[in-house]
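Protocol step 4 of 6: structure prediction from sequence.
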Amino acid sequence: MISFIIIGRNEEKHLPKCLKSVFETIIKNSLRKFEVLYVDSQSTDNSTDVVKKYPFVKIIQLTGDVNSAVARNVGAKESKGNVLFFIDGDMEIVPSFLELVYSESGGMKYSFVSGQFVDIENANSSNYIGKAYHKIEKNFKKQYTTGGLFLISKRIWDSVGGMRNKLKRNQDIDFGIRLAGNGVFLIRLSDVLAYHYTISYRNPKRMFKLIYSGDDLYRCELLRNNFLNKYQWRYFLRENYTMIFLIIATILAVITNLYISLFGYLAIIIIRVITKTNISFWNRILVGIYYLARDLCVFMGIFFFWPRIPKNITYKFMKS
């Protein structure tokens, strides 16, 4: 049995496309043993009313200090399938993908699998942002990080206790790194799995919202949680290498009393910004400022940011 677990908050605009694609997937693959769960994280729009229009969907409404990790954990806990298909509410899945990785007669081809996705600007459904940034040399690639869109054996999910509730952000990356530490890697196929209606990751408002909300602080919590995991260090050095240069430059400046090393750090930031393609000059400046602010936040967060596990989580099934 396969459980489609959709999570969302204020996705009234995109849920119709998401749910329609799920049921098209069920029909195209002639599934008889399935369930569809929608886990709502305190939406203030009409998300749950939209979902109620679709038959056979179990609606779970969360209350308390919720986040994506909590929603997925609750969805997995209440699911009955031995295969979990996690989908975000702003995604429209491609029905033909499922047959590449799962069938009722044969089960899962891979125990932990995902595919490519196409990003489309949230504000304008015709504004194509670009294909997903996963580089696939052949038909598939083994990876140690994941996003919110994947299929997984429930046995594998339970083997690491699902996702960490205390991670408001980076919970999916933490999950993939922990599995990789146990020898289980995500299989990323080259085929498109979904269309993702989102805001560009290079959008200045989105970037600085991460700083203002404190979401980028979870990068340091990710490091602490997996300090002895080699895959964590690969990820950390790849994503936060400018912060490493900031630490080195600061130490050299203090020791030698020469602050030229800090200009070396700024040069690294400039080089990183220059390598970004298809963005305007003004956006390059904003991206550079964002990298500076993020590096400072992560560095300070290592010492002063200690998120707590949310304890006031409750949920209930809503009548459809």
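Step 5 (inspection) to follow. Residues 281-304 form the longest helix (24 residues).
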